[in-house]
Amino acid sequence: MSSTAGKVIKCRAAVAWEAGKPLVIEEVEVAPPQAMEVRMKILYTALCHTDVFFWEAKGQNPLFPRILGHEAGGIVESVGEGVTDLAPGDHVLPVFTGECRECAHCLSEESNMCELLRINTDRGVMINDGKSRFSINGKPIYHFVGTSTFSEYTVVHSGCVAKINPLAPLNIVCILSCGISTGLGATLNVAKPTKGSTVAVFGLGAVGLAAAEGARLAGASRIIGVDLNPRRFHEAKKFGVNEFVNPKDYNKPVQEVIAEMTNGGVDRSIECVGNIDAMVSAFECVRDGWGVAVLVGVPHKDAMFKSHPVNFLNERTLKGTFFGNYKPRSDLPAVVEMYMNKELELEKFITHEVPFSEINKAFDYMASRGQLRCIIRMDG
Which residue range forms the structural domain that includes residue 223? Predict the structure, then answer.
């Protein structure tokens, strides 16, 4: 039993007090976990575009003060009532979506959209009692997507915690909590390219490069990267991308360019931009008969997907995915083992590292567009 179990823990957290303003390192109080909750010590966390999006509060309901962060690795400090599959000392990855293992989605082999624990960006409290586990001088500080990893300690629903191999380096596998798994799973679990196939990846940020990594692991012979930023092409070669297309270089739709390059279209495409035009292009660039396009990016709430019905009738398939179709508790441990077995290369996604006291530098790196993933060391 941890010496701090059942007690309030005081620790450092990076608090977002208002939209777009630098995070402030504060001393916060973290309450003990309640029923079906886990309190964990975060050792490493990373910055994802989703954190930045909600920090900027553009296009969604602002909720401040808040502790952001959702890609992380840590160690269980204590568990609440009813938690039987986790114990103090376990090495874990907190995840922004969950797996209750009881609802229809969790019981289905085809879905990871848990009815109880799927992502809720507007909720800033725990689902058990509708209260926050964070406070400063008695004033609640809101949670973020149920994880809030920009804190030395955090409380997470046990269904959103993946127990992993304790030998796995948390400073590396922590990036599997969100974007990398999303892109990797979109390819391996949803697009499912066969060996020797052709794959187009739209958007060469971290998620898109993870999708390309999945295509590399699957043995695709041609991996075509599509991006408006030519500076990304060199980096993408490390992830198996061997051909590049910049839509700005052509005076016709990029789907036509790709169809000509591949004598009718690619076998699989994965869209990782969140732009509706890229989504349409990703669908229309797959060949008829067996082509499959997978949408990963999240478009503007008012965007409408438009393509002629004949594109479907000609046996093209359009799919969507959430978190790469991985069930967090059941599937993430195996993804970690892919890294441990040297199948999956994660180090190449990590471009920067900063101590926790300099967390705002991670936001600067993200803004400069030179970052894939910045690891934040909580001991600094």
Answer: 180-324
Alpha carbon 156 to its chain centroid, in Å, reads 17
pTM passes above 0.90: yes
To the query of whether residue 308 is one of the catalytic residues in this protein, the response is no
Q: Looking at residue 291, which CATH number applies to its domain?
A: 3.40.50.720
Annotated active-site residue 268? The verdict is: no
Per DSSP, the residues of 298-349 read: ---TT------HHHHHTT-EEEE-SGGG--HHHHHHHHHHHHHTTSS--GGG
Is 70 one of the catalytic residues? yes
C-alpha to C-alpha distances, 94 to 175, 178, 235, 341, 344, nearest whole angstrom: 11, 9, 28, 22, 20
Q: Judge whether 261 lies within some domain.
A: yes
178 is catalytic: yes
11 tagged catalytic: no
| Annotated catalytic residue, options 26, 71, 99, 284 | 71
Known catalytic membership, residue 106:
yes
Q: Is 272 a catalytic residue?
A: no
Number of domains making up the chain: 1
Structure tokens at 259: 């169809």
174 flagged as catalytic: no
8 Å CB contact between 357 and 221: no
Residue 298 lies in a domain: yes
The catalytic position among 39, 45, 50, 316 is: 50
Query: Which is the catalytic residue, given 12, 49, 101, 123?
Result: 49
Which one is catalytic: 66, 100, 143, 149?
Answer: 100
pLDDT string in tens for the chain (380-residue length): 578 999 999 999 999 999 999 999 999 999 999 999 999 999 999 999 889 989 998 767 789 999 999 999 999 999 999 999 999 999 999 999 999 999 999 999 999 999 999 999 889 999 999 999 999 999 999 999 999 999 999 999 999 999 999 999 999 999 999 999 999 999 999 999 999 999 999 999 999 999 999 999 999 999 999 999 999 999 999 999 999 999 999 999 999 999 999 999 999 999 999 999 999 999 999 999 999 999 999 888 888 999 999 999 999 999 999 999 999 999 999 999 999 999 999 999 999 999 999 999 999 988 876 678 999 999 97
Q: What is the dihedral of CA 361, 365, 366, 367, to 10 degrees?
A: 100
Examine the residue annotation and report whether 374 is marked as an active-site residue of this protein: no
114 is catalytic: yes
Catalytic option among 39, 66, 70, 91:
70
